[in-house]
Amino acid sequence: MTSLEETAPFRTFILKVANRCNIDCDYCYVFNSKDQSWRHLPVRLGADVAREAGRRIGEHATTHGLPAVHVVLHGGEPLLAGRRHLAELLDAVREGVPAEVKVRFELQTNGTLLTQAWLDLFEKYGVVVGVSLDGPPTANDRHRLTHTGRSSSAAAVRGIELLRGRPHLFAGLLAVVDLANDPVEVHDYLASFEPPVIDFGLPHATHDGPPHRDNPNLPEYGLWMSRVYDAWLARPEHRHSIRMLEDIVALSSGVRGAVETLGLAPPTSKPWTRCAPSKRARPGSGSTSFSTPSTRRRVTLSSCTGRTAGPRSPRSARAARWWRSAAAATSRTASAPPTATGTPPSTARTSST
After folding, report:
1. Dihedral of the alpha carbons of 31, 36, 41, 44, in degrees to the nearest 10
2. Would you give the DSSP letter of residue 66?
3. Which end of the chain, C or N, has fewer beta carbons within 10 A?
4. Going from the N-terminus, what domains does the chain have, and what CATH number goes with each?
5. Average pLDDT of each block of 10 consecutive residues along the chain (353 residues)?
6. What residues form DSSP beta bridges with 44?
7. Phi/psi at 74 (nearest 5 deg)?
8. What is the 8-class DSSP label of residue 81?
9. CA distances from 309 to 40, 81, 137 (A)
């Protein structure tokens, strides 16, 4: 039996605070899948349930000596819970966690309902916000329409622009890959909003319902993401990170990734650690260094330390080959059942918003 000391604790917890959505994404794994059990669930999370969840999170944090926990508010569309009720939920969760444990709140939204009043609430509680957007209107409107079949793009962009006015609350953007969309156009459009993070998620798929493929003989999703990689490196002004690309390069360098969807070992199998400066691996001792667009400095990946990498992948030709081969391998296995992510994007790429 695995001892408590050998078990890496959970640090991220997802709370589904609203069980309805104001837009009708056709790829939504909650509302537009065969499983329609959501119809029999409460419309929103009750404060009593949030309080109990906070108590259990607090117990877990105390048991494992965690200095901080990450609580992500999801939906449906979490803003449908309403400002007053969401404030009650935030208070309820915070009450259950010991005062010495920091609670980092994050919320994933489609952005269409964001207002200054919402951002004032997030300021009060320290909630950072990620927005789901699949690219420019032509790309976003392939799947993310309202219940009346209208575009949701303008409303989402309006919400993103409000967030840009308070950059400390802007967690990033999340897009679902569609082979019909131009990857460079999608990346550059999302990058134009200057998010700290752009995350890409593969379409939800299972063995019974594999992802769409135009040509099963080609690693199409890997090729699509390879073009994103090239666009990411192409402009020196880019400062954002792209988690999937970082993880593939990290894994290619022998460093553990951040999510279970890539690589062979779950990230929870060993806690993340960062080297103290005096303990970092020296050149020639199994470490790999490269520069990042968000820091413009050299960072080191070392198999003895966990991940110390910043948000950019290597510029070298060898690193590019690493990425392309790893991306192709990821694409070839894309029809396998998806596993749970260790960290949701803002980060959670499985958002239903």
Report:
1. 0
2. -
3. N
4. 10-204+339-353 (3.20.20.70), 217-259+285-337 (no CATH)
5. 65 95 92 88 95 96 95 96 98 95 97 98 98 97 96 98 97 97 98 96 87 91 95 91 89 77 65 33 38 41 35 40 49 38 36 48
6. 18
7. -120, 180
8. G
9. 44, 37, 33
